[in-house]
Write a structure and sequence with these properties.
alpha/beta; six-stranded mixed sheet; 33 helices; globular
């Protein structure tokens, strides 16, 4: 606000942002205490002051403006200034509580991403703190999440072996690319780009991702190991087959125990660290019961039968070596092709020869990989048992149908990875899988390797992960802001998430995002500011420095149970139903995204891409086909759709409502539709365009509108407009279309337009009454031309003895909004609450048509009857029903039902009016 005095303008700030101490009643926004009152009082004293010094002093940037700039760059300064000992204690408790949930969850999610479990702790080290310091939400908890972990695995598995050094390097680099993309979007204030992912698409993808995540943990849940297939459903089938042959019951039992503990404690008190309790209990049991039982042996320690694995072992090692040689050849040929392509000028013949050799090498590599997969599966399927012997333990191969020697009671399996198996150092697993050794200390800080080729390779998947991760984070932040009354800035949140991924990549972190479950724990524990996330990071640091040995015995099946428990909240079947009820196309798009994501997993980008394409395609389709609605007067005096309400149209004046922008992509459709409409209305003299729904007209739309006016006037029709908004009126004036239409043809409302044109258009007309002056409904004879809007919620009884035919017919009717009940014959008992407006008889089997009609009249005297027969020309009484062939189209069927509905309603209305007159 400005105060003018002696020709000097002094900027006065009347309002400041309240601090927590100012607010009197948190439930009453805008009610502040003494500090706020003194601020307003001080401002008012300035306004009323006449001091020359105050009015003449120039306004210069001071400490306040510098602080505002610093707060914009470093958002955490805002809540650091408000920190009190009480809020510090609350944030400490919340931070420790979240850390107790984050530590086991992060390790589980790291394995979901195809990384060693301890990389989850690296991702829980710096990113939560950086995201809290530079984001706009004070309670959002950032770190490893299920969907981002799954997308990371899906992106990297085709490029490298999960858990390998190359895979880890790719995961860290991908985090850097994601962070750079998010940071760029935030700095450019392009947070709105997330709107291209519609809610139905995200809901379909999230439900599919939840199922994929849950099923990806089945192998760990059952304690089996299988090779991943090109498609996820094939991998799940392999897991089920392997579990049928062999399930490690102690692993499965600990997972079930973890499920029970988490579910029970969560029901008891959601604030309890139920994940930590489940992990601690099962880890203690794992340690006490000797859950992990591995042993390294040589081939000499196997019996003669056990040495049958020698031949497949040699074949497997030979295949692995062949893969290594072929991979080296492929890398060399790829480098040669790139070098030749960079030559100026390139040699096409040489490039073609090298490409041919590269194709042959890729074919051989695929063959070796298939051979390796078969041998690996065979080696994993071999089961051994250990017989204790004073001369040395001996491992025997278990053969079906043969009684084994007395043994130690354990089932031993060969651990087969993607490397050579040394005959002198074979790893046998006689127990369950645990996390194992976690490196102690903080991760090494280094700059991830990133070149242009790698950046472009990861850019597409990085964009998808960035947008999905950000959508999850901003949705959670906005949901919490409703409770905390905070202002959430999507662009600042993008900056915070981007910096978290960038800084995290320097400390060996993979991609992270906001977590719904941990954010709920955070706000439930009373977190006031981002300091809670800082304390969470500090707890993770202490864990990495001093408590990593305690993580060794955590069973992997328990981590799988943690993941499966977490993703249960992602499944939202009601979202499909809600989207379908809101708009049918949204429900179809959500279902298409869901099925595509499931079908093409682990190639998850296809489901997202299909959903985005369908959403944008449907939007373009709707914008290129603007809605044209014909209006007539309703009994309440308003103007409504003639089709929806069954109203007649005026013969001489057409009131047409246009909805949506008028631009180059839809003007042709509008013109064609209008000419088609006028061709069926020979008596039309005047068109009134209700243009309140037109919010924009481009050059093509303006030119088409001008040409349309010329064409209509050439046919002897006049044109008027009403309800134009100011922006469209300005455009009409700039292009002189306003003068062409005429000021007398542009009106504020429909009533004004009718007052101006109605008398002239009806001069010499026999139409009485006019539907634009008084509500006029269609007669039953005109009903077949109406649309199906009139039939919404209409109750129809379908009497048909053929189950296949009546089900098909009923299904088609229900799609048009009818409520349909089916009876095989009129001998069946009607529902107690039967109130059918129409009865459709299909080939009545009661003997004669008269008997069938009598039966309907006795049971449903108010219902109108439609008789469908083979030809539609059987001898019948003259009145009382409508008749047609049972092979008529659905549109004709709806016309008949509409006529029957109107006939019945008209008869009831006449009866009611007659009764009232008599009364």
């Amino acid at each position: 606000m400005f105060w003018c005095q002696n020709w000097n303008v002094v900027p006065i700030r009347l309002r400041r942002d309240p601090t927590p101490d100012d607010r009197i009643d948190p439930a009453t926004p805008g009610c502040y205490g003494a500090a706020a009152l003194s601020s307003v009082t001080g401002a008012m004293s300035v306004l009323t002051s006449t001091s020359p010094e105050r009015t003449s002093r120039p306004s210069v940037p001071g400490r306040g403006s510098i602080l505002v700039v610093l707060t914009r760059i470093f958002p955490f300064l805002a809540w650091l200034r408000e920190t009190t000992p009480r809020s510090l204690r609350t944030d400490l408790i919340a931070g420790v509580t979240v850390a107790l949930v984050l530590i086991p969850q992060s390790m589980a999610y790291a394995q979901l991403a195809g990384l060693p479990a301890y990389f989850g702790l690296y991702a829980a080290f710096l990113p939560p703190m950086i995201a809290a310091l530079f984001g706009s939400s004070r309670q959002l908890s950032t770190g490893p999440v299920a969907v981002v972990s799954l997308l990371t695995a899906a992106a990297l598995e085709p490029l490298a072996t999960a858990g390998g050094e190359t895979y880890i390097a790719y995961a860290i680099t991908l985090s850097l690319v994601i962070g750079l993309f998010q940071l760029l979007l935030g700095l450019l204030k392009l947070g709105m780009i997330v709107n291209f992912l519609s809610h139905p698409v995200v809901n379909g993808f999230t439900n599919a991702a939840a199922i994929i995540i849950a099923t990806s943990q089945l192998s760990k849940l059952f304690g089996v190991t299988v090779d991943g297939a090109e498609y996820h459903f094939v991998t799940v089938a392999r897991v089920v087959a392997a579990a049928y042959d062999y399930t490690h019951w102690p692993s499965f039992g600990l997972a079930v125990l973890a499920f029970g503990l988490m579910y029970g404690l969560k029901k008891l008190n959601p604030r309890l660290p139920f994940v930590l309790v489940a992990v601690v209990v099962t880890s203690v049991l794992s340690f006490m019961l000797g859950f992990e039982h591995n042993r390294t042996v040589s081939l000499a320690e196997f019996s003669e039968q056990g040495k049958e694995l020698r031949k497949p072992l040699e074949d497997y090692n030979a295949a692995i070596q062949a893969i290594e040689r072929t991979s080296a050849q492929r890398a060399e040929l790829t480098a040669q092709v790139r070098a030749e392509e960079e030559q100026k000028p390139p040699d096409p013949q040489r490039i073609l020869d090298l490409s041919h050799q590269l194709d042959l090498v890729n074919l051989n590599l695929s063959s070796f990989k298939r051979r390796t997969r078969v041998l690996r599966q065979h080696l994993r399927s071999m089961i051994f048992y250990r017989v204790e012997d004073p001369a040395g333990d001996v491992f025997h191969l278990r053969i079906a149908g043969q009684d084994p020697h007395p043994h130690d009671g354990r089932v031993w399996r060969l651990k087969v990875g993607n490397k050579n198996l040394e005959p002198t150092a074979l790893s046998l697993q006689g127990g369950g899988a645990v996390v194992g050794k976690v490196p102690s200390g903080l991760p090494a800080f280094s700059l991830p390797h990133l070149d242009l080729r790698t950046f472009l390779q990861f850019l597409t998947i990085a964009m998808i992960i960035s947008l999905l991760g950000f959508m999850e984070a901003i949705s959670i932040a906005k949901a919490m802001a409703v409770k905390t009354h905070q202002k959430i800035d999507p662009n600042q949140e993008l900056i915070g998430q981007g910096l978290a991924n960038i800084v995290g990549s320097f400390s060996s972190s993979y991609a992270v995002s906001g977590s719904f479950s941990r954010s709920a724990v955070n706000i439930g524990a009373g977190a006031v500011s981002g300091l809670s996330s800082v304390f969470t990071s500090l707890v993770v640091v202490l864990t990495l420095l001093f408590f990593t040995p305690a993580l060794y015995f955590i069973p992997e099946s328990v981590l799988a149970a943690v993941i499966m428990m977490a993703v249960l909240g992602l499944i939202n079947i009601k979202g499909f139903i809600h989207a379908y009820r809101a708009q049918r196309h949204d429900g179809i798009i959500a279902l298409a995204s869901f099925l595509t994501t499931l079908a093409f997993a682990p190639h998850l980008d296809k489901g997202i891409m299909l959903g985005v394409v369908l959403s944008i395609g449907h939007y373009l389709y709707r914008t290129t086909r603007p809605v044209l609605t014909f209006l007539s007067r309703h009994p309440d005096g308003t103007f409504v759709s003639t089709e929806r309400h069954g109203l007649r149209e005026c013969e001489h004046v057409l009131v047409l409502r246009l909805e949506g922008p008028l631009f180059f992509a839809n003007v042709n459709y509008l013109v064609d539709r209008l000419h088609e409409t006028l061709s069926t209305r020979p008596r039309m003299k005047h068109l009134i365009f209700v243009a309140g729904g037109i919010n924009e007209i481009d050059a093509s739309g303006e030119e088409a509108l001008s040409l349309l006016i010329d064409q209509l006037r050439a046919r002897g029709l006049e044109v008027s407009f009403c309800g134009l908004n100011e922006a469209v009126l300005d455009l009409l004036r700039r292009t002189y279309l306003y003068q062409k239409i005429g000021a007398g043809r542009i009106h504020a409302s429909i009533e004004d337009a009718l007052t101006s044109v109605h008398e002239g258009a009806h001069r010499g007309s026999l139409e009485n009454p006019c539907p634009l002056l008084r509500a006029c409904y269609h007669t039953p004879e005109e009903a077949p031309g109406l649309g199906s809007e009139l039939l919404t919620n209409c109750a129809v009884l379908l009497v048909d003895a053929s189950p296949q035919r009546n089900q098909s017919l009923a299904r088609k009717m229900r799609r048009r909004g009818l409520h349909v009940s089916i009876l095989p014959s009129l001998q069946e008992r009607l529902p107690d609450d039967a109130d059918f407006e129409v009865v459709v008889l299909v080939d009545p089997a009661e003997g004669t048509v008269e008997k069938a009609l009598a039966a309907v009249h006795d049971q449903l005297p108010q219902a109108q009857v439609i008789l469908l027969s083979g030809t539609g020309r059987e001898p019948i009484p003259e009145n009382g029903y409508l008749q047609a062939s049972r092979n008529l189209s659905m549109d004709h069927m709806l016309g008949l039902i509409t006529r029957a509905v109107l006939t019945g309603r008209t008869c009831r209305a006449v009866s009611s009016q007659t009764f009232a007159d008599r009364g």
